[in-house]
Design a protein that fits this description.
The complex is a heterodimer of chains A (about 400) and B (about 280). Chain A is an alpha/beta fold and about 400 residues long. Chain A contains ten helices and 18 strands. Helix content of chain B is about 70%, strand content about 0%. Chain B contains twelve helices and one strand; from the N terminus they run βαααααααααααα. Chain B is globular. Classes of the chains: A alpha/beta (about 400), B mainly alpha (about 280).
Chain lengths: ~400, ~280
């Protein structure tokens, strides 16, 4: 296909898992060097401390000019890594990419915004960071301001903006980029619903009328369906499917019923003699284990526990943390004494009432207020799609949705 | 192993090729293309610096003024060091002016990458722009201190001779030395955060290994070794340009300084470019 805007062949990206922790300080670097030297003297090759991890592996595909492509896949499938390589933020380890046309990428809303500068200043700064020339920004300035609806606050420092204004301004700058190829990461996950619609509309206009190639990563399947003509499905760093948007999305949703990957660590020797978790299950009330759970459905978390020694005041707890690390909620069993044996703790809720997004599930056991085990058991996604009448809004309205009892009485 | 860069087919015109080890192909052209961004980053740093502080430009003056007073007192009054035929404060000021430029450029470029982490992990541009743009802040501060210096010269009624036309060359030499060392430090700081603490320490030691508070004429026997510090040549040059008279440039020493500066710059660029491609992965 001669008109391909992007052609990718054999693309791979390797990370060393210990890379980050190993060399953060000089002292660590020195001790690592010493250890490597010791290992070599002892006749061992030192690869033990470094574990390789391929975030992307052997990826090949083509994107036609003017196509609007959604990139989907679970957390950790390699979507963000792919976008980072396409935007030249990081280099691939293997393979190559040919890109025809000017690329602009939008991996975050408001990259480089400075809180001490005014809205006006930040439009110029952010525009330049996204690759616009000064003349181009000046030409579109009024349009950007009007789109963001911040005329009155232009000369106010951005640190005094409300978060809504901030996001609107940031997106407005980005929406007025005119590259031939636009790469967008999940940036629409912020802002209020009305503004999200406006952004989607703008992106749609851009793609349709101006024939621009757009790559769009999102967990929000309805917006992918609405915007994209075709889609790529990534799974564990490899391309699982590519083609028309409908079929690929279907395949993705079918795959999701396979369940979120759950990890249960092996208990240490001491804990193994006392009490430990043997399995964790995250499922909807009908017993299915989807990786993406729709907001509003009844769900439960089942924890299998093996007790080897009698436990006093034993507690099992589950916690949920949002993708940005906020501890959202914790639930626990009342403390009780347990005799040895196998148990199952079940936590149920008649509707998932957290906003759509990625979460992690933490599991903990304590005896007599002392920790036995605590670990992250699974990452899972909640989706606001098909949330039903009970949840007209599933994002941008807080993490915990509609958790209070409410009533309306005629007086 | 990725294939060597030159064994890959060259990209056709209008096509950008992304492949392992191919980050360089358009690097210098990209720096030119992104020159406006460099201007914006520099402008941001200057604007933020003066918006956030109450005293604004006052800070740029405060620090050298205090150092000037302390050095004049210690070296001029207590140690009774000679200053030739000029007032001691002017001797110190002519050394302090380039030293401030050097120190500010070095610490600014050194920490520039780490303080722009959010940009480096989210957008592409030639990373060299970040340390380059932080030179601007140091230059603005230099301008302010230069005005202070001019006022002092006027106050003492000392007028520089025609040698002053060579001053920009010594400014450039100070910038080259500081920028070269700053490149090393900025790239090293990305990997080893320890360098954040090493830089202030280096500058503190450097201040005493550099003839800021006294004239180089006081260390005649050590001149050659002393001049390995590129700032010795720069400060001698500044004193020659501004004070003239007994202050001369020691030519072999100056050449030493130039060679060291160029070496720092060349190796700095080399190390920066070599490590640059992994910045986004480890920062």
């Amino acid at each position: 296909m001669g008109a391909a805007a992007i052609s990718v062949s054999g693309l791979g990206k390797r990370y060393w898992l210990s890379q980050r922790t190993r060399a953060d300080t000089l002292r660590d670097a020195f001790t690592a060097k010493l250890r490597a030297l010791g290992a070599r003297l002892a006749g061992r090759e030192n690869h033990g401390s470094e574990e390789e991890f391929w975030a992307l592996r052997d990826l090949s595909f083509e994107i036609a000019r003017g196509d609007v492509v959604g990139i989907i896949g679970r957390n950790g499938a390699g979507k963000s890594t792919l976008l980072k390589i396409l935007s030249r933020i990081t280099e691939p380890t293997a393979g190559e990419i040919r890109i025809r046309g000017r690329v602009a990428s939008l991996l975050e809303v408001g990259t480089g915004f400075h809180p001490e500068l005014t809205g006006r200043d930040n439009i110029y700064l952010n525009g330049a960071i996204l690759g616009m020339s000064r003349a181009e920004i000046r030409r579109k300035f009024d349009e950007i301001v009007a789109f963001a609806e911040v005329e009155r606050f232009l000369d106010m420092r951005v640190k005094h903006y409300s978060s809504g204004m901030y996001v609107r301004l940031a997106f407005a700058v980005a929406a007025h980029l005119e590259p031939e190829i636009l790469i967008v990461d999940e940036v629409l996950a912020v802002g209020d619903a009305a503004f999200q619609k406006k952004c989607l509309g703008k992106m749609q206009d851009v793609a349709r009328s101006e024939g621009r190639t757009v790559l769009f990563v999102s967990h929000n399947l309805p917006s992918i369906r609405q915007l994209c003509r075709s889609a790529l499905l990534l799974s564990a760093g490899r391309l699982e499917a590519a083609g028309g948007c409908g079929p690929v999305l279907e395949q993705y949703q079918r795959g999701l019923t396979a369940g979120a990957p759950v990890t249960v660590p092996k208990p240490g020797p001491e804990i193994a003699e006392r009490a430990y978790v043997t399995a964790v299950k995250l499922e909807t009330l009908d017993g299915r284990q989807p990786a993406v759970i729709p907001v509003g459905v009844p769900w439960k978390i089942r924890i299998s526990i093996r007790v080897r020694q009698p436990q006093r005041r034993f507690v099992a707890a589950v916690g949920i943390k949002s993708a940005d690390g906020i501890a959202v909620q914790t639930s626990w069993l009342p403390p009780q004494d347990l005799a040895p044996g196998d148990y199952e703790a079940v936590f149920t809720q008649d509707r998932v009432n957290l906003e759509g997004g990625s979460y992690s599930l933490l599991v903990g056991l304590t005896e007599n207020d002392r920790h036995l085990q605590q670990f992250e058991a699974a990452r899972f996604d909640l989706t606001g799609e098909n949330a039903g009448d009970q949840f007209p809004a599933t994002s941008g309205v807080g993490i915990v949705l509609n958790s209070m009892q409410s009533s309306l009485e005629r007086l | 192993m990725p294939p060597a860069a030159d064994s890959l087919p060259a990209a056709e015109p209008g096509i950008m090729l992304i492949a392992a080890g191919r980050g360089e192909s358009n690097y210098w052209r990209d720096i030119w293309r992104y020159r406006e961004l460099m201007g914006f980053l520099a402008w941001r740093d200057v604007a933020v610096r003066y918006k956030q502080s109450v005293l604004g430009a006052g800070w740029a003056i405060f620090q050298p003024a205090v150092t000037l007073a302390v050095f004049t007192f210690i070296f001029g009054k207590l140690a009774q060091m000679p200053s030739g035929d000029v007032p001691y404060p002017l001797l110190v000021m002519a050394g302090l002016l380039p030293w401030q430029l050097f120190a500010n450029t070095l610490s600014g470029t050194g920490s520039s990458l780490v303080s722009n982490t959010h940009l480096i992990s989210k957008v592409y541009f030639p990373r060299l722009l970040v340390p380059l743009s932080s030179v601007a802040v140091a230059l603005v501060d230099f301008g302010i201190v230069a005005v202070l210096t001019a006022a002092m010269f006027a106050w003492y009624g000392v007028l520089p001779g025609p040698e002053i036309v060579f001053l920009p060359l010594f400014v450039l030499l100070a910038l080259l030395a500081a920028f070269g060392a700053g490149l090393w430090l900025s790239a090293l700081t990305v990997r080893y955060r320890d360098f954040r603490f090493i830089v202030p320490f280096l500058l503190q030691v450097g201040l005493f290994l550099t003839p800021v508070g006294f004239s180089t004429g006081n260390v005649p026997n050590w001149r050659e070794i002393f001049a390995l510090n590129p700032m010795v040549g720069v400060i001698d040059g500044f004193r020659w340009c501004l004070l003239g008279g007994t202050h001369t440039v020691h030519v072999p020493g100056l050449i030493n300084g130039i060679v060291v500066s160029l070496l720092l710059l060349a190796t700095g660029i080399w190390y920066f470019r070599r490590t640059e491609r992994s910045f986004a992965d480890i920062i």
